[in-house]
Automatic annotation (TrEMBL):
PROSITE patterns: MR_MLE_1. It catalyses: D-mannonate = 2-dehydro-3-deoxy-D-gluconate + H2O. Pfam families: MR_MLE_C, MR_MLE_N. Its cofactor is Mg(2+). It comes from Rheinheimera riviphila. Its EC number is 4.2.1.8. Keywords: Carbohydrate metabolism, Lyase, Magnesium, Metal-binding. InterPro entries: D-mannonate_dehydratase-like, DgoD-like, Enolase-like_C_sf, Enolase-like_N, Enolase_C-like, MAND, Mandel_Rmase/mucon_lact_enz_CS, Mandelate_racemase_C. GO terms for molecular function: magnesium ion binding; mannonate dehydratase activity. This is mannonate dehydratase. Catalyzes the dehydration of D-mannonate. Has no detectable activity with a panel of 70 other acid sugars (in vitro).
Length: 402
């Protein structure tokens, strides 16, 4: 099954997406997501200038060999740009292989481990009362797991708090905007939020929270300990994870479950976290982690150590990644939960898909492949618009983690 053509499609139906389309001599094509928020064109260049010329003429069925060719053959391995580009190729090839086999991707991976995929939504508000109302709206929509974020008094903006009830897009300007941050104000406020949520909703809903890499290990340990009475499903990205052993300190002080990994691009970013059981959920995503081929290895390692998957699923991942992730979630034995941030109507129109939401779960379809396509004519109506994620500063002006 010879690869005859491959091209990159860049569009912005409400936000920027990068999509790779690979075509074969048999007329079967596959698509993969190559979106890297705020660095989209770097991935476009890597694909067009370096990978696609080496891809033409290869056998699309040889997924493992092609993956190794681009990973080992690059010499300069890993990193978000390279692994995102490689993921786009890998997902497109799995899409082709499943279409050629006439089966949905989850069947090609080994079949169902579950009938439906538990997802969580994002409730947020300018203050605690506003967030309580947002959680109530998500409950009305059927969500059984909800991430809760709230504005913090004294801070003009806070990560995870959006202007829209259902849609959150942090890449908000042509040049990076600047936010201010106070760890002390945040730490004093968050336990009050979850005390209020449990009082309103009881224990029948799973509650999650994202710190977004803004604490030191001992600060994260304090927060995890203070949140224990409220039984969080997980505390996400409590610290930056370059220092993997830093999670040991958090583990020593709290039983609140820990999740991390959305910015990881390789199994080497999480090997110690998993093998020492320092986390409970691994969040590495298919699009930034080298595709289905590499995520299978991460999930297999995690299974040995009782770590479950909890894939990143924000709107900066196109429906192509969401659809592929759902097939992976349906198959993988050590599934935990799937993040589900709804795309806009414009995005859904550009990327028609067969997955569906119902009462807190997503269901992947039975269409051969990963079940997501791209309307290229419609995509052409939405040209690329440069957009950056914000940067963060402490109140004294020190640049900090966003």
């Amino acid at each position: 099954m010879k690869i005859t053509a491959a091209r990159v499609i860049v569009c912005s139906p409400g936000r920027n997406f990068v999509t790779l389309k690979i075509e074969t001599a048999e007329g079967i094509y596959g698509i993969g997501d190559a979106t890297l928020n705020g660095r989209e064109l770097a991935v476009v260049s890597y694909l067009e200038d370096h990978l696609i010329p080496c891809l033409i003429g290869r056998d699309a069925r040889q997924i493992e060999d092609i993956w190794q060719y681009f990973y080992r053959g690059a010499y300069w391995r890993r990193g978000p740009v390279g692994m995102t580009a490689l993921a786009a190729i890998d997902v497109a090839l799995w899409d082709i292989k499943a279409k050629a086999a006439g089966m949905p991707l989850f069947q090609l991976l080994g079949g169902r481990s579950r009938d439906k995929v538990l997802v969580y939504g994002h409730a947020n508000g300018k203050d605690i009362a506003d967030t309580v109302e947002a959680v109530a709206r998500y409950r009305e929509l059927g969500y059984q797991a909800i991430r809760a974020q709230s504005g913090v008094p004294g801070l003009a903006s806070t990560y995870g708090v959006s202007k829209d009830i259902l849609f959150y897009e942090p890449a908000d300007a042509a040049l990076p905007s600047e936010n201010l941050w106070s760890t002390s104000k945040y730490l004093n406020y968050v336990p009050k939020l979850f005390a209020e949520l449990r009082q309103h909703f009881g224990d029948d809903v799973h509650l999650l929270h994202d710190v977004h890499h803004r604490l030191t290990p001992i600060e994260a340990a304090r927060l995890g300990k203070e949140l224990e009475p409220f039984k969080l499903f997980w505390l996400e990205d409590a610290v930056t994870a370059e220092l993997q052993e830093g999670f040991r300190l958090i583990r020593q002080h709290t039983t609140t479950p820990l999740a991390v990994g959305e910015v990881f691009s390789s199994i080497h970013d999480c090997q110690q976290l998993i093998s020492e059981q320092l986390i409970d959920y691994i969040r590495t995503t298919i699009v930034h982690g080298g595709g289905v081929t590499h995520l299978r290895r991460i999930a297999a390692l995690a299974e040995l150590y009782h770590v479950r998957t909890g894939f990143h699923g924000a709107t900066d991942l196109s429906p192509v990644t969401m659809g592929t992730a759902l097939h992976f979630d349906t198959w993988v034995p050590n599934f935990g939960i799937q993040e589900y941030m709804r795309h806009t109507a414009e995005t859904d129109a550009v990327f028609p898909h067969d997955y569906q939401f119902e009462q807190g779960f997503l269901y992947c379809g039975e269409t051969p492949g990963h079940g997501v396509d791209i309307d290229e004519q419609l995509a052409a109506r939405y040209p690329y618009q440069r957009a950056y994620l914000p940067v963060n500063r402490l109140e004294d002006g020190t640049l900090f983690n966003w």
